[in-house]
Design brief:
One of its GO terms (biological process) is proteolysis. This protein is mainly beta and 281 residues long. Helix content is 14%, strand content 38%. It folds into 2 domains: 121 residues, SH3 type barrels (Roll); 133 residues, Alpha-Beta Complex (endopeptidase fold (from Nostoc punctiforme)), CATH 3.90.1720.
């Protein structure tokens, strides 16, 4: 068993620095070690999404099975784009979506070392997730550059954006768009969609190649060049700057509870009436 003790760690397709980065581990995420290749590489399964890949052995900190269980059962997500955590004699910069094991509101523990965290954090399950919360999380990533395999504010791909946003809201979402399309309920027409629904897009080979989160007013937030907001209709995503469609719509799926049609907002409210969402933003 292991835990990521660094800000962002690349997960590679094969055990080589030259291999494609297929995903990333963020600080505090736990893994199961499946195989070791010498002393330099280990094959891991990430506990957050069961994604399998190779990481350098010195970028993973070994933990006991009991710590693995505790850290996965009790943690908070950092909501700060970038925030240093303070140990006894050093700092570690962590990103939005990093996990804070056994966080008590002020401190958390990583092995035998305690760290202080002074930013905003959220504990999954402490609130009822809503489209408002989902979209506020997503908009924090605006202007994050596109990075294949990325899951952090320094670079992320389209399924990485969806996964991180819904993960912080308490949903377990697969890593890749081709797997994300298998969860949730199908929405037949875009006219029946609601904010927070996921829109999936296909390439010229009719394969799912892109995903984004629907917003009010026929808009979508997604990672394409960078995390951005574009217009969307029944055909796909329309790039106003280039005056052309950039993505072709394939399917819409719903993970959040359905809102009665008469209550579907034209705009997502800026403040929840009560609860954690209002306090966090």
């Amino acid at each position: 068993m292991g835990i990521c003790p660094l800000s962002v760690v690349p997960v590679r397709h094969t055990p080589s620095q030259r291999s494609e980065m297929s995903s990333q581990l963020l600080f505090g995420e736990t893994v199961e070690v499946l195989e070791e290749k010498g002393k330099q590489w280990c094959k891991i399964r990430a506990s957050c999404d069961n994604f399998i890949g190779w990481v350098e052995s010195n970028q993973i900190k070994a933990i006991t099975p009991s710590e693995f269980e505790r850290f996965n059962a009790h943690f908070a997500y950092s909501l700060e784009l970038m925030q240093p955590v303070m140990g006894a004699d050093h700092f570690i910069p962590i990103t939005m979506g990093a996990r804070l094991p056994e966080f008590d509101g002020i401190r958390f523990r990583l092995g035998e070392v305690y760290y202080t965290f002074s930013g905003q954090a959220v504990v999954p399950g402490d609130f009822q997730p809503s489209a408002d919360f989902i979209l506020k999380l997503a908009k924090r990533y605006l202007n994050t550059p596109f990075l294949w395999g990325g899951r952090s504010p320094f670079g992320m791909d389209s399924p990485g954006l969806v996964q991180m946003v819904f993960q912080m809201a308490g949903f377990k979402v697969p890593r890749e768009a081709s797997a994300q399309i298998e969860i949730g309920d199908t929405i037949d027409f875009i006219e029946n969609a609601q904010p927070g629904d996921l829109a999936f897009f296909e390439n010229n080979q009719n394969r799912i190649s892109h995903v984004g989160i629907l917003m009010p007013d026929n808009k979508i937030i997604h990672s394409f060049g960078g995390v951005r907001i574009d217009k969307i209709d029944h055909y796909g995503i329309y790039d106003e700057a280039r005056q052309m469609y950039s993505k072709r719509l394939r399917l819409i799926k719903r993970i959040l509870p359905t809102i009665p049609r008469k209550n579907v907002p034209n705009e997502v409210s800026e403040v929840e009436s009560s609860g954690v969402q209002a306090e966090l933003f």
